Amino acid sequence: MTLASSVVAALTARGETVAVAESLTGGLVVSELVGVPGASAVVRGGVVAYATPVKASVLGVSAALLARNGAVDPTVAAQMATGVRTALAVDGVPATWGISTTGVAGPDPQDGQPVGTVFVGIASAAGAEAFELHLDGDRQAIRQAAVSELLTRLHVTLETGE
Questions:
Q1: Phi, psi at 103, each rounded to 5°
Q2: Whole-model pTM?
Q3: Are 97 and 19 in contact (CB under 8 A)?
Q4: Which residues pair with 131 in a beta bridge?
Q5: 117-124 and 97-103 as β-strands: parallel, antiparallel, unpaired?
Q6: Which neighbouring-strand residues pair with 22?
Q7: pLDDT of 102-120, one tens digit each?
Q8: Residues near 28 by Cβ (< 8 Å), separated by ≥ 6?
Q9: Is the peptide bond before 107 cis (omega within 30 degrees of 0)?
């Protein structure tokens, strides 16, 4: 069983949904999830907020925070995860979980952060948290590792019942 299929199975068993907000991964996370048969029961969709202003205008990330810290920031990841829950609400009901990626895949540093610095966010009605990652490799390797790390962290959260 793949990591994505484990996440879809856990969400299905719990009767929960997920919405995805992506920057550096550009849709790879939601693509992994929707590649699993039965994903339509739990995956609300994804927002690729690649341009920094879209994080504010679509996902509700604080424009002041983005201006002050840039997009590669743990609070930005947490706010993206929180914002996508409501951005992809169905009939006024937010997704159970919001997950997000933001970071630097390269080839150049961004917002004062070196290549490989990535923040992933996980949000629910109980709140949001972000995790800092330092990933190695070329642009594609960093993007793929970010997908894997985020899905692993979501799976652990779902399995521990938090």
A1: 170, -165
A2: 0.98
A3: yes
A4: 120
A5: antiparallel
A6: 48, 101
A7: 999 999 999 999 999 999 9
A8: 22, 143, 144, 146, 147
A9: yes
